[in-house]
Structures are given as C-alpha cells and as structure tokens.
Amino acid sequence: MKSIMEAQALSYSYPGTNSQALRNLNMKIPEGTKTAICGHNGSGKSTFFLQAIGIHRPTEGHLAWKGSPLQYDRNTLKQLRQQVGLVFQDPEQQIILNTPLEDISYGMRNAGFPEQEINRRTEQMLASMGIEHLAEKPIHHLSLGQKKRVALAGVLVLEPELLLLDEPTAYLDRRSEQQLIEELDRIHQQGITVVMATHDMNLAYAWADWVLVMDKGQCVREGTPYEVFSHEEELELLGLEQPILLDIWNAMPESVRQGKNAPRDVRSFKQFMEENTASLFSHSAGAKVE
Ligand SMILES: Nc1ncnc2c1ncn2[C@@H]1O[C@H](COP(=O)(O)OP(=O)(O)O)[C@@H](O)[C@H]1O
Ligand SMILES: [Mg+2]
Residue 197 belongs to a domain with what CATH number? Predict the structure, then answer.
C-alpha cells in the first residue's frame, strides 16, 4: 500500500528531557485508509502527530509526506498544514476565537482565502456538521461534544488530504461518539485518509481498516484489525485489551467459527447468530451427549 505519511528511523526527545518520546520509529500511514494508532498512554501517539504537522522537528531520521522528506521552512509548513489537519485531543487547545463562526473561518483567513470563499465554506461546514444553530454562541457555552465538532470543523474546512485525530472520542457520551464516527466515515468516503489515535480497542477494531500499534515510541505491529488483534497475548503485554466482540467470538465453538470472519460490529454479530442458531444449538446438544 502506498503511504501518504511515513516516519523513517525517526527519533525525538522533548527539549530538557533525556528520554526519547519516539525512538527509531518506522511507521507508515497507508493512503486512503481509516487507520487507528493504538497504544497505551505515553507510547508516543500524540508526539507522532505533532511531528506530522511539523510542530516538532525530528532529532534523528525524518518524516516523509507523499514520499518526500518534510522541509521546515515557513512556506512548506504552511502548505503542509493545509494538507494535513490535526484535531487535538483537547478542543480548548484548538479553538482560539470566541464563537464557532469566527473560529471556523480563522484558518482560512490566516491562509489568505478570499472573503467570499471563507463565507461559503464556513456556512457549508456549519451545516454539514449540524452546528448552524451554534454559529454565534460563545464557545464556553458549548458542551464538550459540541466543542469537539467545532474543532473538527475548523480543520476540515481547509479540506485536508490527511486528517489526524488525537483521541477523538475521549470523554464523549455514546451518542456523540456515534455521531462523530458517522461524520468520519462520511469524510473518509470523500477520499480523505483518516487516522485516529485511541486506546479504545473496541473502537479501533470496529472502525479501522488498518491498525498500527505503538509502544515506547516505536511501532511494534501493523496490519488489518484481524491480523493485529489475533496477537492477543502480545497486546495484553502491551497493556491493550482484547476487543469485546472478538473475545465473545473466540468463546464460540470452533466448528461454528471455522472459515468465517469475526464480526466487527454488533449488527453483523447478530446476523451471524441468526444464521447459525441451528449449528450452535446442535453443537451444544452434541457436547452434552458426549
Ligand atoms: N511536552 C512534553 N514534554 C516532555 N515530555 C513529553 C511531553 N509530551 C509528551 N512527553 C513524553 O513523551 C512520551 C510520549 O508521550 P505522548 O506522545 O503524549 O504519548 P501518547 O499520546 O501515546 O499518550 C511520554 O514519555 C511523555 O511523557
Ligand atoms: Mg496522547
């Protein structure tokens, strides 16, 4: 798979520390995917994202954007930050102006867009995120879920090719999480590569089509959700839990599971149960006779 962003032997230490937050990191984001970067706290996910938009510069190695090493001059960085959008974990870190309307248009104004285009895109973005009614509300009156939508809108309005989201569902209630996931799927269908850092393995398993696992500043595994989560013991050693659907799946009799893909969401799990009630029942009846 062609990578859109790639860390090549990248190491980084924060100023004033002598430990490496990223150590000889080799990691590829495949173009066009929904990629989940998993790893427990401190494994380097956020640091990688800051590298990806050129906020920090590698101590060693480099980052490649569409095959070319990143340059750190002002113009290149400005261009990069229109192509690569980062949504911070904490929307307070991202939203700088007083209302969604002002904040969402800020990035475009900064990038020198014509006023007419700014208005057109802002209106469209407010509508597609379903936050028109909040446009002129003071930011501090919004809920966390609403603030997260505003922060996402402010990034999306620049029409990035690569969207990076740092723990986007942290502290969201289930409904807001569901809404966000639907939004991300819509964005992905428009051809944008979407990457989320998360330590929610259930979400990673259900949502992603590519999974990267980070530990101690390195990428220790990559693959499809099935491939990555089949290494149960390894993940446990890394402090990552097994997705619950996969746990239940593995508890089913092997004869029933054979040759079938594990369901990745509750709907397909239900479907599997409906289709296999007969063989599940006959299996347990058989087991009793033995
Ligand atoms: N601003 C910072 N200054 C110094 N060390 C930091 C800073 N931010 C993160 N670190 C360290 O870098 C490592 C990676 O952290 P981080 O990228 O935040 O991990 P994650 O996002 O996976 O939780 C950790 O050891 C963390 O303590
Ligand atoms: Mg983090």
Answer: 3.40.50.300
